Amino acid sequence: MTGFGRHLILIGLVIAAIGVALSFADRIPWLGRLPGDISIRRENFSFYFPLATSIVISLILSLVLWLLRR
After folding, report:
1. What is the pLDDT of residue 1?
2. Which of 3, 20, 11 is nearest to 65 (CA)?
3. DSSP H stretches of helix in the chain
4. Cα(58)–Cα(70) distance, rounded to whole angstroms?
5. Which of 10, 23, 40, 61 is in Cβ range 3.0-4.6 Å of 47 for a Cys bridge?
6. Cβ neighbours for 38, distance < 8 A, ≥ 6 positions apart
7. End-to-end CA gap in the chain
8. What are the sequence ranges of the domains in the chain?
9. Which UniProt keywords apply (predicted)?
10. What is the pLDDT along the chain (70 residues), one digit of tens a residue?
C-alpha cells in the first residue's frame, strides 16, 4: 500500500503545480503567443489553436516526468 500512497502524493503535487502555473500564466507574456500558434480572424469568426505552445508545454511536462522517474 505504500506505493499507492506515494502515487496519491505525486498526483496531488502535480495538481498543485498545475494550479500554480495557471495562476501565474498571465504573467508569462509569450505563453500562447508563440510563432507557431494558429490564429484565424474573419468578420464573424475567430479561431485560435496554440500549436507551438502545446508542443512546448508537452516537452516541459515530458522532461519533468522523465526526471521524476529516474
Report:
1. 55
2. 11
3. 2-23, 51-69
4. 18
5. 40
6. 47, 48, 49, 50, 51
7. 21
8. 1-28, 31-70
9. Membrane, Transmembrane, Transmembrane helix
10. 577 888 888 888 888 888 887 787 777 777 778 898 999 999 999 999 999 989 988 998 899 888 888 7
